[in-house]
Write a structure and sequence with these properties.
Blueprint (H helix, E strand, L loop, with lengths): L2 E7 L12 H10 L4 E6 L1 H4 L4 H11 L6 E6 L7 H10 L5 E3 L2 H4 L6 H12 L3 E5 L19 H10 L5 E4 L21 E2 L10 H15 L4 E2 L10 H9 L4 H16 L1
Parallel strand pairs: 1-2, 2-3, 3-4, 4-5, 5-6, 7-8
């Protein structure tokens, strides 16, 4: 089994994505042996009202509850976001939230960020934070949005032991509280098998994955492709190249993601 913790449907303002619909995503999943996927709306990241993207996601994904696990994009600086969160959780069946503090102009540690984390955690929803949407080299000249650091997410996880955190699209976890034994009390998963990690500085960053597994444990690393912003072939290859014991490989491929859902 293979569970992908990081996929999207919808549109992106700055370049065409290979597909936009749930059916497109399912075809890509089938082609790459992916059984289930955590999915959110790419459109919602840049919509003034993110909830419109959540509505679009629900319309697309609701016919495939056995394969697509919806994650809501919530902006805690937007009016009545608590109502949007309730709708996503209670009516749309969202199992987690995707937070974009740099795009939506707040901090995970400020009043807005803390309020959203508390509300989502009270609903037993996973807190997923993409450290970036695109690689810096792919971004439009109109975007000047810094990455979220692994340390910022780890500090939020440390401050909210009641929450389950899932940072995606990133690395650098060894330099954060995630690597400090006993520092983060809540459960968490780290999606770090990114294609950009293996470009240019491939040896050093490839070794970081090995060290992260050794230091933090394979039971906290999950698979994520980033489709359709990226292609999954490189990630699947790297999963094989890591040459892990079967138990560790199975944990990364699906067991850890399922545990976070449960």
């Amino acid at each position: 089994m293979l569970v992908d913790t990081n996929t999207y449907i919808g549109h992106w303002a700055f370049r065409p994505l290979p597909w936009h619909t749930a059916d497109d995503l399912l075809r890509a999943m089938d082609a790459h042996g992916i059984d289930r996927a955590f999915v959110s709306s790419a459109s919602a990241i840049l919509y003034r009202n993110s909830h419109a993207g959540n509505e679009e996601l629900h319309a697309e994904a609701r016919a495939h509850p056995d394969r697509l696990v919806p994650f809501a994009v919530i902006n805690p600086t937007y009016a009545d976001w608590q109502h949007d969160l309730a709708i996503c959780h209670e009516e749309f069946g969202a199992r987690g939230v995707r937070l974009y503090p740099k795009y939506h102009r707040y901090q995970l540690s400020d009043a807005n960020g803390k309020a959203l984390i508390r509300e989502a955690a009270a609903r037993k929803m996973i807190i997923s934070v993409p450290l970036r949407v695109e690689d810096n080299r792919q971004r439009s000249w109109l975007l000047d949005v810094p990455d979220v650091t692994a340390a910022e997410v780890a500090d939020a996880a440390k401050a909210h032991p009641e929450a389950r955190f899932l940072p995606v699209n990133g690395f650098g976890y060894l330099r954060s509280a995630f690597a400090e034994e006993g520092s983060v009390q809540g459960d968490f998963g780290l999606e770090m098998l990114r294609p950009a990690i293996f470009m240019g500085r491939s040896n050093a960053l490839g070794q970081e994955i090995q060290r992260t597994i050794e230091k933090i444990g394979a039971d906290h690393v999950v698979f994520g492709s980033g489709m359709p912003f990226t292609i999954p072939e490189v990630l699947l290859l790297k999963l094989e190249v890591l040459n892990l014991p079967k138990e560790a490989s199975e944990a990364i491929r699906w067991r850890n993601a399922v545990r976070l859902l449960e």
